[in-house]
Amino acid sequence: MKILHTSDWHLGHTLYNYDRTEEQQAMLEQMANIVEEQKPDVFLLCGDVYHTPQPSAAVQTMLADGLVRIHEANPQMTIVMTAGNHDSGTKHEIFQTPWKALKVYAIGQLEREDLNEHIVEVPGKGWIVAIPYANERNIPEGFFQQLLDNVAERNTEELPVVMTAHTTVRGSDFTGHDHATEFTVGGIDSLELDEMGEGYDYLALGHIHHEQFVHSGKVCARYSGTPLPVSFDENFTHSVSIVEIGRHGEKPVVKTIEIQNPHPLVTLPTDGLATWEEAKELLSKFPDDIPAYIRLNVEIEDFLPVEANAEARSLAEGKQSRFCCINAQRKAVSQNEVKILTIQEFQSEEPIEIAKRFAEYNGINFDEEMQAMFNEVMDMVAEDSRNS
């Protein structure tokens, strides 16, 4: 079985209010071209199809047109598309029935009663166990293994078994994600790989944007990463994974195909911080004919000049590049000084970090129990947003 593994398209994402439709359409066209060339049996899109649970009609149309083009590139191919934590699980399944006419299986919510809703048979090729994002507390104990055991009973031809999931696996490289830890990335608590069960030949993961294998020594688990960067800190290659598996029990062979972005995200300077005057000079000298998004990394002692953003926008006029933001960072403060956040720093902080700062300022002990309660409330808010 040959698979194209991708995830985290984040269609509808805007960067500092700049529309990214051109880039996203270019990515979709490259996907179709890769399908036409590689002729995979299965196309896996493992969550975060959209950037928000409420995508605009134009963004939904972009996805529909893109999937039709991808289907036409290889009509025999099965497409499995699961919802991620950025998607609305219920909206994901609205057109589930008509999509099947194009061999597209849209799986948005966890189905506890009918396990077959998560199992897609690819006749003569293999089996796909497709699991959308679900909060950990909503996943029944042993759910992954139940699904894999169900497939094992039906897999009399010893065909390859692939499972998909949109989650954080402990031990992953979360480079590019703000305020991530080994326990939580992007608001999703990490799972041990052992919790995902046994019996699959390849675990196709979504959620973490840096493509990588999750090395455990026992199974082949992989994040395909996002095909387009969502933030300036995703300073790595973006690609899709092509996976080939001979038979059940055989090790997958994986290669990557890079996705080209017509508007790359560029940070100036490329390494470290510059003074405000140095940053302005770098922006001024940036080539006029290179289309790119620009972030300036600036070290400050106090505050940036009030007119700083206006100055930067003026320097970018006439260029094909788009000035986005100034990432202003203060020089390190001593342990006893109270850190004053810039607007940029405040916007990039995780809510729990702000809550910790507030508690510390007011002399409140923000212990593990309080942190757990805070995270639970944030999960409930996010889930309500996805389901609304």
List keywords for this structure.
388 residues; alpha/beta; six-stranded mixed β-sheet
Summarize this entry quickly.
Helices cover 29% and strands 22% of the residues. It is of the alpha/beta class. The strands form 4 sheets. A 6-stranded mixed sheet has the order 4-3-2-1-14-15, covered by helices on one side.
Low-confidence stretches: none
Radius of gyration: 22 Å
**Secondary-structure-derived class:** alpha/beta
Major pleated sheet: 6 strands, mixed
- In DSSP terms (H or I, runs of 4 or more residues), the helix count works out at 10
Shape: globular
Give the H and E element order.
EHEHEHHEEEHEEEEEEEEEEHEHEHHH
User: What's the count of strands?
Assistant: 18
Compute the average pLDDT: 91
Q: In angstroms, what separates the terminal alpha carbons?
A: 38 Å
State which percent range the strand residues make up. Answer: 15-25%
Break the fold down into its secondary structure elements and pairings.
Blueprint: E1 2-6, H1 21-38, E2 42-46, H2 57-73, E3 78-82, H3 89-92, H4 96-99, E4 104-107, E5 119-122, E6 126-130, H5 143-154, E7 161-166, E8 168-169, E9 184-185, E10 188-191, E11 202-206, E12 212-214, E13 221-223, E14 239-244, E15 253-258, E16 265-268, H6 276-285, E17 293-300, H7 308-316, E18 322-330, H8 343-348, H9 351-361, H10 368-387
Parallel strand pairs: 1-2, 2-3, 3-4, 6-7, 7-11, 8-10, 11-13, 16-17, 17-18
Antiparallel strand pairs: 1-14, 5-6, 9-10, 12-13, 14-15
